[in-house]
Amino acid sequence: MMDILNIFLTDSFWAASLRIASPLIFGVLGALLCERAGVLNLGIEGIFVVGAMTGWMAVWMGAGLWTGVLVAALSGALFGLFHAILTVPLGLSQHVSGLGITLFATSLASFTYRTALPQVSSPPRIEPFRALDIPVLSELPFLGPVLFQQTALTWLALLMVGVVWWVMDRTALGVAIKAVGDSPDAVNAQGLSVMKLRIGAVVAGSALMALGGAFLTMSAFDAFFFGMVNGRGWICIALVIFASWRPGKALLGALLFGMFDALQVRLQTEAGALVPGQVFLMMPYILSIIALVVVARKAEYPRALLVPWRKGQR
Amino acid sequence: MIEVVPRENVSRRWQALVPVIAAVVALLLAAIPLVAAGAPVVPAYAQMFKGVFGSVFTFTEMLTRATPLIFTGLAAAVAFRAKLWNIGGEGQLYLGALAAVWVGTGLVDGSPWLMIPLVLLAGAVAGGLGMLVPATLKTRFGADEVVTSLLLNFIILIFVQMMLEGPFKDPMGLGWPQSEPIIDNAMLPQLMDRMRLHGGFIIALVLALVAWVVMSRTVWGLKIRAVGENRAAARHAGLGVNRVYIGVALASGALAGLAGVSEVAGLKGYLTSDLSPGFGYTGIIVAMLARLNPAGVVLAALYVASVFVGADSMSRAMGVSSFLADLTVSMSLICVLLASFFASYRLRFKRAAAA
Predict the structure, then answer these.
(1) Residue B192 counted as domain residue
(2) Which of B141, B146, B162 sits opposite A293 (nearest CB)?
(3) Which residues 297-336 in chain B show a CB within 8 A of chain A?
(4) Which of A110, A118, A310 sits opposite B4 (nearest CB)?
(5) Contact in structure between B263 and B271 (CB atoms under 8 Å)
(6) Model confidence pLDDT, tens digit, residues A59-94
(7) What is the predicted ipTM?
(8) CA distance A165 to A169
């Protein structure tokens, strides 16, 4: 028992929590933007894969790391645009379109990877983002390793929480995005374009999701391999409900999740002899379901989520 | 300015052609990745065709591949009709397979007349219970079944791995995490000499027929469709909406579970954690291609299986990545979405009016 309490006292535990949370922060913020505008984006899992693959591949082909990040965001935006066209002007089922995008994006990324690298036994590596090691600050006890020895992408994730919060809560654009997810008719009556707002939000949200994927291949690991996203996108869809579509709570949710995942890995080494390791591997998914069930009754979904809107029709 | 205008008087024939057009377009679009991979396009298509229709063996291989897809396609079609989004077919398939292995590797023994129904029943029950969880979380707590059924796929797969490394592990398996082989009396019979096609295919066809009759000819099918089309109205009309959800969940999960039984007791003979290359997810595509019609599911499964078997053969012959099959099949889903849209609506382009 003391051993378990000791885990919480190590800075490596808190550093790992933030590291594990980083891709989820991007993903939850992305899902938040889409859903606030009234569009469920189940393409998230595939967009993670695409971001992971394209960002890594750009760097592998010789581009700089930040160019890779940009490539990942743009390819995510492209798939987001595809989902947006299918669901917003065409008004097709958001569930089916999103799953279609996930399957399409995943298979396209896998096909591209395999075609570019037909026969590789071990996935080629890139030089990923390094820990920032900010002078003085990273020497601080506790805070140094936890905050100031993370990579730039973790900082970008934290920065995006602020950006999304500022846009949603402090700008007219944010008010319009939230309104378009709640009552598109009112937005239309104001002379704003429901279509443009929704498409824009889905494209921007999908770019964020792709950054979550890019984090995996360019910061957490240094290579792309099949199945590496492993449900992280779906977990974000659960977390955004848990976060009641608020950026601050999204950060909290992702951090809590990161903590449980980091704890799970450490418990596995502590109690590995007593319980099969798989029990711990299941925990993140089980926790996501529990989190969802706990908040489900109180969850105030954006009122026009899943509802297609056509001018002049109700 | 683009305007979406509903088409009037769309003939049923056109509507029925929608999936066919989508499938053909997706197959043609596959030429793009083929060119990108540097493969000669026409010989590649010829090889795909030969890979399915080249011999009796290749054709039965296609039917064998279609078998689990009919089950998972039906599972998705039945659930989606009620707008119960069961995305957990993959997990339910594994639960079904695990139950079949549990019952079929020596827990009980008897004649095939006892054993085969028993493994089928065990798999169906396990799969049904697998979907009962998300359905109950939905009806009791209002938790979105899309997310819960998806996340359960991961949990169940890890659980199966745990079982295969623990109590279900074959001590004769040379250290590989695999189950003991299913006893002969519990194996589904082969349908043809020296072919892998097995009784699961016949069961799948029968269930497609049953599902079609239930959905289109019974009160229960009517209720399912009513809930799917307008839940509020169905509730207002006094339909026990939650009971419909639970019933649909059990049926849908059972169908997906049977896919697992059919694979493990018809084809593989023992369970490994790579039993399914995503049959549960592909079943969703099959259901959408079939426009949720159980009879159409059979045809859609044959098409999807042809793409997979044909592309596998082409891939071996020409060195193009076999992900081409996944790519083509996922493009079929998007094509059928678009085709169904354009069958019911058209776009009218207008000059942007002032203001």
Answers:
(1) yes
(2) B141
(3) 319-321, 323-324, 326-327, 329-331, 333-334
(4) A310
(5) no
(6) 999 999 999 999 999 999 999 999 999 999 999 999
(7) 0.93
(8) 6
